[in-house]
């Protein structure tokens, strides 16, 4: 038996903490879809703007939107539908979201 996961359902968002916002007034939120072998699978969304974050161990696939995520070491990755990225716990990142970003994550 299987269960269809609705990755298109609305994700509740809230304004990001002011200390993390670099530009604009981005909002973000997530919705858990399932737990598989103790790992969470969910959908995360962020509206346009720039914000910093400290990451958790995660792999994600971008479903829609456009953004760039930059890392402390100077590397940056342009994100578009189909992008697959691995984040490591403790990494400091800066997210520049140009078009509302929606991703499915495994963490």
Automatic annotation (TrEMBL):
Positions of the (S)-ureidoglycine aminohydrolase cupin domain: 39-105
SUPFAM superfamilies: RmlC-like cupins
One Pfam family it belongs to: Cupin_3
InterPro entries, alphabetized: RmlC-like_jellyroll, RmlC_Cupin_sf, UGlyAH_Cupin_dom
Record field: transmembrane: none
Protein's UniProt name: DUF861 domain-containing protein
Organism listed in the record: Nocardioides alpinus
Lineage, uppermost ranks: Bacteria, Bacillati, Actinomycetota, Actinomycetes, Propionibacteriales
């Amino acid at each position: 038996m299987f269960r269809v996961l609705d990755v298109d359902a609305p994700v509740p968002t809230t304004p990001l903490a002011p200390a993390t916002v670099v530009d604009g007034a981005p909002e973000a939120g997530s919705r858990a879809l399932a737990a598989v072998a103790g790992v969470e699978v969910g959908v995360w969304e962020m509206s346009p703007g720039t914000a910093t974050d400290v990451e958790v161990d995660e792999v994600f696939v971008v479903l829609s939107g456009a953004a760039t995520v930059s890392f402390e070491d100077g590397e940056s990755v342009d994100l578009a539908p189909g992008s697959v990225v691995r984040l490591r716990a403790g990494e400091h990142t800066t997210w520049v979201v140009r078009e509302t970003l929606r991703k499915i994550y495994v963490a």
